[in-house]
Amino acid sequence: MIGLIDYGAGNLRSVENALARLEATATIAATPEDLAGARAIIFPGVGAAAPAMASLRDRGLDRAVITAIRNGVPFLGICLGMQLLFERSAEDGAACLGILPGTVVRLNTREKLPHVGWNTLEHVRPHPVLEGIEGEAFYFVHSYVVVPRHPGVVAGDTTHGVPFVSAIARQGLVGVQFHPERSGTAGLRLLENFLRFAKVEAAA
Amino acid sequence: MLLKRIIPCLDTAGGRVVKGTHFQQLRDQGDPVALARAYSKDGADELTFLDIDATPQGRATLVDLVERTAYEVFIPLTVGGGIREVDEIRTLLRAGADKVSIQTAAVQRPELITEAARAFGSQCIVVAIDAKRHASDGWMAFTHGGRTPTGLDAVGWAIEAQHRGAGEILLTSIDADGTRAGYDLELTRAVVDAVQIPVIASGGAGHPKDLEAVLTVGRADAALAASIFHSGAFPIPQVKAYLAGQGIPVRI
Fold it and tell me: Rounded to an integer, what distance in angstroms lies between the CA atom of residue A130 and that of residue A192?
C-alpha cells in the first residue's frame, strides 16, 4: 500500500484522487504504525514549515519518515513535503528532518512571489520517476526553494527570474517543488512513474 | 519561465452550469463536471466555478459538485460565490477546491481575508474585485454582481486585500463584462502595477486578441473568460496557439 502522510494541515484529497485515477489505493498515515507496512510513501505538504514540523513531531511521524527513507522505502515529497527533507528552513527558522544536507530559503527573485502557476521542469537528470517529463509544465505554488548542499541530488530545475531546484532525487527518494496532483497529464505521468518504480522496488 | 494562465469560468447554480455552452462532444452540456473535464483536456490551466445560487441547499450542492470535479479533474480549481465564513472555506478546500474566491464578504468584513489566509495560507485565498469606471477618474469596487457600490477605490482595495493576505486578485471590469469588446486594459494595468500578487483579469474577452492584449498591455498573470470558450467560438487550443504565436508563454 501507498502511505500518504497526514500531519493534520495538508489537504490530501487531490493526491488521493490522482492515485485513485491511477488505480492505486492510498492509506492515510497519521501515526508511525500507519506507515509501518507502506511499500511506498508520498508526503504532500502545504503551509508553513514550522507548524508542519511541530505536527510531525507530535505524531512521531518525523522518526517514522527518517526510518522509512533509511530502509529504502520509495518516497515522494511534494512541495513542503520535499522542503522538510532538508536540514533547516529560513521560513520561521524551522529545523527540518535533516535527511538531506541543505537548506530552504526564500527565492531571491525580482519576479512575483509566491510563484503561482505553470512553469517548466528543465535539465532533468535520468531517474525512473522523472522519465518522460522533461520540458513539461507543472503547477507551482510556493515562495521558498530548496538549496541542496550536494549538487548530486539535484534532478531538475525551473526558472522564475532565476533558476531554482524544482526536483531532487537520491536513489528511491524523490522530491518535487511543484504539485503533480494538480498538473494535468504531466503530473499524472510522474505519479504513475512513481507507482511503477515503487512496485519494481518492492519486487526486487 | 512562468506561463500565462488561461482560465475558463463556469457559472453554476444547483449543481448545473447556468450559461449555455456549446461543447459539441458533450451529450450533457449543463453538467459542470463534464465541462470541467472537457476544458481540462483542451488545455485549460485552471478552472473557476462561480456559484450564483447562494441558498443553503445550493451550497451543499456546490460542495458535492466540487468533490465530483476534483475526483477526476487534475488542474487547479477555484470556487467562489457567496462565501462568507472561514468554515465554508474549509469545507470547500476539503472537498477538493484548491482556492476559494471571496468578494462581498471581504468588503463587508476585510478581517475575513486575514483569518482565511492564516488558517489555510494565502495561496488559496483569492479576493475578487468587480470594478466600474468612475465618471471622473479611476474605478470603484462594487459588490452583489455589480449592483452595490462600495465606495472603495478598486486599486486601493486590491492593495489592502494583498496586505490582508490575499494570494491573488480576480479582477473583473463591470463595464467590459459581457461586451466581448475586450478587457479593461487600463484597469488591469493599474491593479497589476499596484500589487505584487498575481492578477487574474476578467470581463470582456471576445477574441484571442483580447487575451493577448490583457496579458501584454494589461500585464495580467492570467486571463479568465467564459463566453468566448462556452460559445465554441474560440476553443482553448486555438486561443493558446494564437497566444503562443504572438510570443506569449503559454502551456501548450
Answer: 10
Say if CB A100 and CB A153 are below 8 A apart: yes
**Which residues of A are the active-site residues?**
79, 179, 181
Mutate to test the interface with B, among A136, A182, A188 (most CBs of B within 10 A): A182
Homologous superfamily of the B5-245 domain (CATH): Aldolase class I (3.20.20.70)
B93 interaction partners in chain A (CB closer than 8 Å): 11
Put simply, the answer to whether A46 touches B221 (Cβ < 8 Å) is: no
Q: Quick one: pLDDT band at residue B25, thresholds 50, 70, 90?
A: low
Question: What gap in Å lies between CA B115 and CA B133, rounded to an integer?
Answer: 30
Of the candidates A20, A112, A184, the beta carbon closest to that of B196 is on A112
pTM of the model: 0.94
CATH topology of domain A2-203: Rossmann fold (3.40.50)
CB-CB neighbors (< 8 A) of B196 in chain A? 112-113
pLDDT tens for residues B133-145? 987 789 999 998 7
Rounded mean pLDDT of B81-94? 92
Kindly determine whether residue A17 and residue B197, on different chains, have CB atoms separated by under 8 Å: no
Domain ranges of chain B: 5-245
Name the residue type at position B75: I
Phi, psi (degrees; rounded to nearest 5) at A65? -70, -45
Give catalytic residue positions of B.
11, 130
**Other CB atoms within 10 Å distance of the CB of residue B1:** 12
Neighbours of B140 (CB within 10 A): 17
- What's the pLDDT score for residue B26? 66
Confidence of residue A1 (pLDDT cuts 50, 70, 90): confident
pLDDT tens-digit map of B163-187: 999 999 999 999 999 899 999 999 9
